[in-house]
Amino acid sequence: MKRMKLAMVLGVGLEVGMGTLLAAQRPGVTAEDYYRIREVGEVAMAPDGRHVAYTVVNILEKENRRRAELFLVPVVDGATTGEAQRLSAASADVSQLRWSPDGTVLGYQSREAGRSGIEFRRVSAPAAGVSVPGVRGAPTWSRDGAWIAFTWAVPADTGLTGARARAGWIAPDARTRTLDAERMDGRVITAMAYKADGTLELLPHPTAMRHRQLYVVPAAGGQPTPLTSLPFAVSEPVWSSDGRHLYFSGDSLWAIPSVKQTRDIYVVAREGGAVRRLTSNPGSEYAPAVSPDGRLLAFLSVRETGGDLDLLVASLDATGAIVGIPRNLTTAWDLNPGAPMWMPDGRSLRFTAGVGGNEHVFEVPLTGGGVRQITTGDRQLNAVTLSKDARVMAYAATTADLPSEVFLAGRDGAAERRITRLNDEWLAGKTLMPTERITWTVEDGTVIEGWLVKPVGYTPGRKYPMVLKIHGGPHGAYGQTFFQTFHMLSGSGFFVLYSNPRGSSNYGNRFEYATRGNWHVMDSEDYLNGVEAALARYPEIDNDRLGVSGGSYGGVSTNWLTATSNRFAAAVSSRGIANWYSWWGMSDIPNMTEFEFFGFPWEQPERYTRLSPLTHVANVTAPTLIIESEQDWRTPMGEGEQWYMALQKLNVPTELIRYPRSSHGLSRTGEPWLLVDRLERLRSWFDYWLIQHPDQLPARRAYPAGVNFFPNGSKPKAGK
């Protein structure tokens, strides 16, 4: 499926210095440097192009948390005219930036000391807040500025006790009964959607869940009017051009995990009344955007899981309904368009999309003529926003050697100016080695793209270990963005290899779903050939000191590679999978393998068994660090425990780390203390086995006799 990336993507670095001499003067990146990284959160260009607002995410080490601060910068003719002014309170965490149509008022979500609410600032007097009573969610103004729409979920009553405080814990359609509801504080579950990664507790029964609904309030404030009362969450609200209707997206079948695509676009009148579903074709439609003249609705559409994600445009009638058959503007374009943004003349749309290791702005005309790339360079752009006349763009951009910073540019990406210097000071004291692009060709002729980072202090002729890093998904992609882990390993004396094998996004639909039904088997060829390509380019890489590491799909791939090849001397498997049977029954997304493996476990028993690393675990000799999160519902901790127990029984050196209060996103959004601890444990595991004590490595078993895991009888071969 052409879809939005899970994103965890990295890229090409900047050549730094004079090799060994410079490395001796400036150390490489360490795990603790995480506390110094400052990242751009959101960017919001004012419609009149006179201000740009953005948030900066800081790591508060002593408090073990993050805080996003809000800044405002004046702009004239696409250039800043003054210093950035911080608008948020010193202890406030800010998100969801929204501008009024005339660019005079900025609204945002603010959380501080247990309080949460929507705040407004007038740019003419930003130090003083503006009171807009009744707005309880991120504001979306009508085009005439008269109304504000928002989505909001009625919070649970925290004053309740006993059974009343546990609404939805006991399924209303349960056939069992209890003798005392006050004593029973367990769960009775009848729905399939009863857990979701990132939630501290199990979900209540769907009928008891409080979903975000749509409200409107006059722009001056007042009593909010509810427009929806639906059994699913409302998202992505947008106004019609005349302010008479609101469009939004939602999934009425959210509670039934399925391989089907079921999201739709809806419309409701500003005064309320019946909610109308506008899309009913097979598939999902979302990210609605109304044209400047109000006559057209653009949106993203995917007809089936694994299908092409496309940008469609439909005509609207006076009632706000779609008339006729929507037109597909990206039929001949095989990448994944992001949410559409109309250009002022209504003749074209812009969006961001990943292309190889990069992410850029693209434009497509309504009349056809193909998709045109607007921005360029080995980097990734995100949080792209335009002034109303599109003369100025603001966005965040990152490269392999630079965390995200805010940039301004003209309509076509020209006259680009970097307006923040968030990380320059601490990076000036570090050595970041350049990232080199490398490609290789596999048996069927497919070209695989990857990247190499040399060790800090690299000296030609000296031997170094190398770590292969594997991304998650599997339909994610590495590319041109700052990833601390790679620089940390480089700074510790490792070559680092990372790549986008078949199954990765950003290379077209056929490439992305080439591994369907053949996970691990097909992409193993890509990984192992990549190792051979790296060895061919740099003889300094020690063939006997190769490590492999990844998280999620990268974790299960790490397990697979150590079980089906003898190439790797040590491994770190994070939130991996050992057994596809048990994963299917425990994960919050069992529908993933139902699609990728062509059926349920009982329909594809041979495939679920053959593709489970646990089936082949007896071949593992590589010392393995297993990292798990205790509240991970995506790849539940039981998978790591199975892998740990098997390796212990096989006398393979193994450690299992369990991180409390942590979900599947520990490596990206986990508690800073735990995240940094994870980085150092990953680094020190490879340092112990591949640098300090390679003499203690167990003898590797021979490759399993008579077994060939590569398609078409191919064997790993050196790349280019």
List its traits.
alpha+beta; about 30% strand; Rossmann fold; 37 strands; about 725 residues; disordered C terminus; eight-stranded mixed beta sheet; disordered N terminus; five-stranded antiparallel beta sheet
Verbal overview:
By secondary structure, the chain is an alpha+beta fold. The chain is 15% helix and 31% strand. It has an 8-stranded mixed beta sheet with strand order 30-31-33-32-34-35-36-37, with helices on both faces. It starts with 19 loop residues before the first helix and ends in a 28-residue tail after the last helix. Residues 1-23 and 704-720 have low confidence and may be disordered.
CATH top level of the domain at 433-698 and 707-713 is Alpha Beta
| Mean of all residue-level pLDDT scores | 91
Largest sheet: 8 strands, mixed
Could you give me the name of the CATH homologous superfamily of the domain at 433-698 and 707-713? Alpha/Beta hydrolase fold, catalytic domain
CATH topology title of the domain at 433-698 and 707-713: Rossmann fold
Report helical residue fraction. Answer: 10-25%
Element layout with pairings:
Elements: H1 20-25, E1 39-45, E2 51-60, E3 65-76, E4 79-80, E5 85-86, E6 93-99, E7 105-112, E8 115-122, E9 129-130, E10 140-141, E11 147-152, E12 213-218, E13 225-226, E14 235-239, E15 245-251, E16 263-269, E17 276-277, E18 284-290, E19 296-302, E20 309-316, E21 322-328, E22 341-342, E23 348-355, E24 358-365, E25 372-373, E26 380-386, E27 392-399, E28 402-410, E29 417-418, H2 424-427, E30 435-441, E31 447-453, E32 464-470, H3 484-491, E33 495-500, H4 509-512, H5 521-537, E34 541-551, H6 553-564, E35 570-574, H7 580-586, H8 591-596, H9 605-610, E36 624-629, H10 637-649, E37 654-659, H11 666-669, H12 672-692
